[in-house]
Amino acid sequence: MSNNIIQLLPDVVANQIAAGEVIQRPASAVKELLENAVDAEATQVQLLLKEGGKQLIQVIDNGKGMNDSDARLCFERHATSKLRDINDLFSLRTKGFRGEALASIASVAQVEMKTCAKGAEIGCSILNEACEIIEQTACQTPVGTNIAVKNLFYNVPARRNFLKSNQVELRHCLDEFQRVALAHPGLGFSVYHNGNLLFQLNPGNLKQRVVQLFGQTYKTKLIDVKEETNICNIFGFIGTPESTKKSRGEQFFFVNDRFIKSSYLHHAVMQNYASLMPADSYPLYVLFIEVDPARIDINVHPTKQEIKFEDERIIYTFLNSATKRALNNFSLTPSLDFEQDSTFTKMDGFKSTPDYARLNTIDASSHYFRPAPTGNGIGMPPRDWQQLFAGLERQVELSNQNPEGSNTLASNTSFFEEESDAPMETTQLMQLHQRYIIVPIKQGVLWVDQQAAHERILYERYLLQMQGQEQEVPQQQQLFPVSIEFSASDAVFVNDLLGDFHKLGFDLQPFGQNTFAIHALPAGFQLAGREKQVVEELLTELKGELLPKEERARGLAKILARKQAIPAGTPLASAMMQQLVDELFACETPYVSPSGQLTFVQLGMEEIGKWFKRIKD
After folding, report:
1. Helices 531-544 and 552-564 sit at what angle, rounded to 10 degrees?
2. What is the average pLDDT value for the chain, to the nearest integer?
3. Is residue 102 classed exposed, middle or buried when 0-12, 13-18 and 19+ CB atoms within 10 A define those classes?
4. Is 522 helix (H, G, I), strand (E, B) or coil?
């Protein structure tokens, strides 16, 4: 019996360990197979997916194909057509080179490959399961390679259980596809998911490819970038500041046509946008850096998305200079936003402000204020907040007894006075810097953040609407429907959300491939002229949160509430302040906004009194 401690791992175990590094999810296999097709000098590539890539990932190309022996050998570890000796590592121009991709994929999936080399009259078919070739036969197949990966992680249940929903996995697959398609605009690509065509990309130039992937809106919103030096060449496009979005999904760096991630180089670009757009926005950029392969090391990460430059600071400088010059040539001038004078004042003194007339025309049935039902079961039940106010119990009771009175203030009594039946007109509500509402109460004073409070009110109302616990939302029909074009991946996402949008009062309907039309909006929404922008921002932010399908309703309600809440700096009439406060304390969770910000703080009389204690002589 051997006493040796060190042993060689069986091939199947070694391949599954390698698969853990190389194949992390369906998108990893998509990346490897697409890059193999590109390296095979294909001019047309098809990608077919089922169930987000969990059930099927199939890549069909018209490249140079393989003969029988190469087809069998490509499933072995460290088998590659990209390297011959160590010097090849320093002059790489191809995508893959490790020789582990197909071996890793085959170790965790059922793989069927058909391939035919150029000039051959017949091809071969190979069936591989868990790194074991089950069958190899001759077959008739077009020149090129057709490889199908079925039931990914079928033999690694723990790994399969960690995969996300089909929708999330599909988006990751499409992200990888977009990177390959951008790097090679001269190739034709098509993508199908569950039999539906998502992308049909014709060969063209880089600008055409950007528009094909991200929509016609970019046709006039791309700025050309070009910089040639003796160290590197930089070219591509950046987006105009008005085309910025709330997520950073449409930002791409390519080094020698290989997609990379670099926060350092990202800063070089973003620095030039600092004064041209809001701080929470991101521009599109698709930038290519050509550099001598000997000056970089791409073998530092299993996915090859991180590389090392010989001198990264020089690349940073050239990139920063190139994008800055492109923006200057486009003659962009930042718009200045001056803060209006903020003062402490009673709201009755705002009748001369420009917005006062508009704000006072917004009645209680508008999007700004409408009493929200109580007892909706959302969030944690309030605890002990009744003790803060005199007469509050009566206020809530009256609100519940008068559900039909939703177009008026909930009651003509106020819980902010010592006497619960004091008329509302005697309540002294004030606004501080058009941001906070000062509310006198029996025990002291409340400082209510008007924006955070309104977010809480709207959030709970929107959730009730999507749960079908509140009456159908009245809609305002559009005289001329507004159309929105999305990328193919976003269009799939939108289709999944149409039901939730309808419950919120949006009539959003498909209108051709990847295009949707807004036929109606929720009555009272302040969206005139901004319909397209608001819907796009909602989807962008919701997509960025990567929420599972069952949590999207809450995510959508949260984002919409934030966008539709009364912003800081908005003057409010006394009646509006009163109704805002009343509705806040009728919420199930009045203490915080949906994002966790406090909606109010209390300052007690005892604490106030400490400030004014006389100093004894």
Report:
1. 140
2. 77
3. buried
4. strand
Q: d(Cα 254, Cα 309) in Å, to the nearest integer?
A: 13
- The pLDDT value given to residue 102: 86
Sign for the pseudo-dihedral over CA of 318, 323, 328, 330: positive
State the DSSP code for 413: B
Beta-strand runs (E) in 105-255: 110-116, 123-129, 132-139, 144-150, 188-193, 196-201, 222-228, 232-239, 251-255
pLDDT at 415: 36
Boundaries of every domain in the chain:
9-204, 205-335, 344-464+567-611, 475-564
pLDDT of the residue at 300 = 54
Lookup: tokens for 8: 């060689």
pLDDT tens digits, 530-567? 777 777 777 777 776 656 666 777 888 888 888 888 88
pTM: 0.67
CATH code reported for the domain at 9-204: 3.30.565.10
* Nearest CA among 500, 471, 464 for reference residue 379: 464
How many CB atoms neighbour CB 412 within 10 A? 11
With beta carbons less than 8 A apart as the criterion, state whether 97 and 74 touch: no
CATH 3.30.1370.100 fits 475-564, yes or no: yes
388 Cβ partners below 8 Å, 6+ apart?
Answer: 441, 443, 602
Q: What is the rounded average pLDDT of the residues 77-99?
A: 52
**Nearest alpha-carbon partner for 586 in 422, 442, 386:** 386
Q: Which fold has domain 205-335?
A: Ribosomal Protein S5; domain 2 (3.30.230)
Please tell me the distance from the alpha carbon of residue 123 to that of residue 117, in angstroms, as a whole number.
Answer: 7
Q: For 344-464+567-611, give the CATH class.
A: alpha beta
Whether residue 446 contacts residue 454, with contact meaning beta carbons closer than 8 Å, is answered with no
Any residues with CB less than 8 A from the CB of 188 and at least 6 apart, and which?
43, 44, 45, 201, 202, 203
Q: What are phi and psi of 429, to 5 degrees?
A: -100, 135
Whether 251 contacts 213, CB under 8 Å: no
Cα Rg of the chain, angstroms: 31
Cβ contacts of 615 within 8 Å, gap of 6 or more: none
Average pLDDT over residues 31-58: 94
